[in-house]
Amino acid sequence: MSSKLSLPDSETINLESSGKSPFLSGSTTRRQFLVRAAGTAAATTGMSALAAALSGCGTPNVNTGKGQAVLNFYHESTPGEVLTYKKIIAKFEAANPNIKIQLQSGNNGAHLQKFNTQLAGGSPPDITRMWEIDYGGYAKKGVFLDLNTFIDKDNQFAEKVKPDIYPDLAKLFTWENKFYVMPDQLTTVALFYNKDHVREAGLTMPSSWTDTSWTWDKFTDYAGKLGQTSAGRTTRYGYAEAWNFAFSATCAVAVANGGHWFGDKAINPGDTDSNLSDPKVAQAIQWYADLSNVKKVAAAEKSLQSQSGYQLFQTGKASMCIVGHWFYDAFSQTSGLNFDIAPVPVGPSGSRSGTNLEGTGISIVARSQYPDEAWRFVKYWGGPEANLERLNWLPTLKSVGSSAEFKKANAALDHATLFTEALEVGAAAAEPVSRAWPNFSTDWLTILDDIWNGKKSAADLKALDSKVNKAIQAYG
User: Which Pfam families does the entry mention (predicted)?
Assistant: First the structure.
């Protein structure tokens, strides 16, 4: 056997190659957007700015000579996340004295670059953090072990923990019937709103994904009533884009209109599966753009150049925004900001509200010398005790997502469980998980941005479908 693993194609692992910056300067991945945007938001609350990167040198996989296996664990994380990791690791090591977990830090500014270098050099870590958008290329090349091979022999996990994982989240990390990533974080978005603004306007917000009275027309009416002007200038927007227009429109608003990019084939889609021109998807994208271009009830893109949408919301200059739980800490520590969440409004073709589905987790690298020990850590990492240590994230287990502990950790929200309830009622739809993502994401982001700016319309989505499908076909 070769001493080096075959890497996924460079287009898959080098997401910086997707070119256009869809989020913040120099950012091209959803994961980087979450880290950088959350860091900016935290800074505006007076908290210490998140470090740009955490440097660290890897150590070879060794046995300490004390009967102790050393497992190298690669990650790209914020300082706060590392503190959480260390708490979990300490508890695991106390219960498993024959295993030591050695953290290896990557560079947040060069996503997975260090991991890829280790793979190419034949000295990869035993375990790595992994993101839903990235894992498919590695799985296809045999970089990771199928966790099902361990679960099939672990009755306790198979009977008590695996069924507790949100099924759609487990499916998100299942590639060609193999389960490659143990989920550790669920990501869905919701409509954040300023409770004081809503109360002062005499409005009532919905609190259920199945509330079909929360229509586009009602949302537009609310956004108009919540906005404020003075001397012909907008002093408060009823709504502001706080995530990214393309993602919000395609992966949340369209889902709430009964549309889903790639439909039930979002994980490893084929070269005929892109359906952005589906009327349910196209109608939602156009409606979302028209909120600023036609209805004038939302901040236009040019209005977000000096202050982003989440900052407008954070400072009371916008009343509503769609974004994820990752901003909870920043928002909850902002003095005077009284907020809650509601579902995304339901489109005319939708039967209920809808949202996106993303996630992260950890994988076992196939070349690990200690696969059984690695599994012991991975199953603990995905289990209830570790989930309860990570309540600053959305939990991956149903029992934790509905727990009193989760509600207490998110006490600033009256309806915190809306995030997890989306999976319980089937309202969360997976974002595309494709090895060809870097091949088609730039065209998607560019054309959706042009629709937001009024330069193009939903009529251009049919041609975009063709580009996306050709990109997938070219990938092989």
Answer: SBP_bac_1
